[in-house]
Design a protein that fits this description.
Pfam families: C2. This is C2 domain-containing protein. GO terms for molecular function: calcium ion binding. It contains six helices and eight strands, in the order H-H-H-H-H-E-E-E-E-E-E-E-E-H. By secondary structure, it is α+β, with helices and mostly antiparallel strands. It folds into two domains: about 55 residues; about 130 residues, Immunoglobulin-like. A four-stranded antiparallel β-sheet has the order 4-1-8-7. Strands 3-2-5-6 form a four-stranded antiparallel β-sheet, with no helix packed on it. Strand 7 and strand 8 form a beta hairpin.
Length: about 210
């Protein structure tokens, strides 16, 4: 009876309202909101953050410059032990049989040695060697010994040469020998020292201007 109370035109309007509760426009609007939950600007922002987190080109260039600075300081050292004069005679019979050893202080793997010259207090060695691993500030150490066949070799004298003396312009001259107490003793050592770039640096191509 109540349904019959509504005229046909009113029933049609109620039915229209129910069907239109979720009109296509609303559904499309909901779909648009879901698709827009992560708008392109959010992805762009994440990309910007990633790019900002990476080290800037200036920082990378600075690190490279530091590495190049270390490599620049690393070089080879060419040492010539020419000879010695006025050495002490450590033999009871005959004369000393001297030889000389050289190394970078604190770097025993750089040690080199001349040949032994028999019965000579003014030996001439003309010995040349290249020491790898030299760095500015290193000190050269020299020790002259008398070779003894059956006993310990006798120290005839020692000398040192700091890098300040040869790093920039090389060195050529005589070094006064000292005893174990650091006091002058008989004899002098003639040497030549020069610095040269290591092969790894020398072979690097020159950058284009």
């Amino acid at each position: 009876a109540e349904e019959a109370a509504l005229p046909p035109s009113v029933a049609e309007r109620v039915l229209f309202v129910e069907e239109a509760a979720s009109p296509p426009g609303v559904a499309e609007h909901v779909l648009f909101v879901e698709e827009a939950a992560a708008p392109p600007t959010a992805a762009a922002s994440a990309l910007v953050v990633d790019e900002e987190a990476a080290p800037p080109p200036a920082a990378a260039a600075g690190a490279l410059a530091a590495d190049e600075g270390i490599a620049e300081d690393d070089s080879l050292l060419k040492v010539s032990i020419v000879g010695a004069t006025g050495l002490r005679n450590a033999e009871w019979f005959g004369k000393s049989d001297p030889y000389c050893m050289c190394q970078l202080k604190g770097k025993p793997r750089t040690k080199v040695q001349t040949e032994v010259v028999s019965s000579q207090l003014n030996p001439v060695w003309n010995f040349e060697a290249t020491l790898d691993g030299y760095s500015k500030g290193d000190t050269l150490e020299f020790e002259v010994y008398d070779k003894d066949t059956f006993n310990a070799h006798d120290l005839l004298g020692m000398a040192t040469l700091s890098s300040d003396c040869f790093h920039s312009n090389g060195f050529e001259g005589d070094l006064q020998l000292l005893d174990r107490n650091g006091k002058p003793c008989k004899g002098a050592l003639r040497i030549k020292v020069g610095r040269q770039a290591s092969p790894s640096r020398a072979e690097e191509p020159t950058p284009a201007p």
